[in-house]
Amino acid sequence: RLMCGAVVAHRKTDASQFYLLKGAVENLLSSLNIGACYFVDDYDDAHITVPRLHPSRRALIKTENGTVIGWIGEMDKKAQKYFGLKKNRVAACELDLLAMMDAVQKEHFYEPLAKYPFVSRDISMRVGTQTRVADVERLIYDAGGDLITDVDLFDLYENTENGERSMAFHIVFGSPERTLTADEVDTQMVVIMTRLAEENIDVKK
To answer: What torsion do the CA atoms of 52, 66, 130, 123 make, to the nearest 10 degrees?
Structure first.
């Protein structure tokens, strides 16, 4: 009743395989019409069967009511060495098919097509290696307010030598009531960058 998956990266400093796999899992859950799911960093031996996962790139996958339907994580160096993968980085996941079936929504919900155009901006930054993508996304959403419709990570590079990560996000703005002006979006971007700077995140200008 379990389904497993993995992504292998050949670059030692590339942490993107975890987020590639996370995106694939999100797309799978969405295509199966499973309700809202969350990736939470609760380490739970009762659900995670791989004993050694990266401390900042591991998560349980939970439904809206708290049911665990699987886990996802990057193997740490000792686990990769044990499996003969010490020159690569490996992300893996395990999904409980029965729990997923129970979480499938019987009704389909559709949103009308947007009446007004979206406006997008990209933002990149340097952070510490312990900074989580989800935390940065949350800061962007909170700072951008109701005008943000989507935030997507599109680039991630980790330099283990200096303990830094480079992240880049695609931010989409929109309103169901009107067309946003460039000045409005630029103003919100300043608010977002200011909020990130308050958290000691080095935003690239």
So the answer is: 130
Determine how many CB atoms are found less than 10 A away from the CB of residue 70.
25
- H/E segment holding residue 82: helix 77-82
- Quote the number of domains for the chain: 2
Together in a domain, 14 and 97: yes
Residue 48 one-letter amino acid: I
Distance (Å) of CA 32 to CA 22, 26, 100, 145: 16, 10, 9, 30
CATH, residue 56: 3.30.930.10
- 15 and 86 inside one domain: yes
Tell me the two tokens of residue 153: 């990570």
Range of the domain at 128: 119-203
Per-residue pLDDT tens over the stretch 52-100: 777 777 788 888 778 888 888 888 877 777 777 777 788 888 899 888 8
Q: What is the pTM of this model?
A: 0.58
pLDDT along the chain (205 residues), means of 10: 75 67 85 78 60 75 84 82 76 88 73 84 90 86 91 76 84 93 94 94 86
Residue 43: predicted pLDDT: 60
Do residues 196 and 132 share a domain?
yes
Residue (of 65, 58, 20, 16) closest to 39 by Cα position: 58
Instruction: List, in sequence order, every beta strand (DSSP E) within 26-147.
Output: 37-40, 53-63, 68-75, 89-96, 119-128
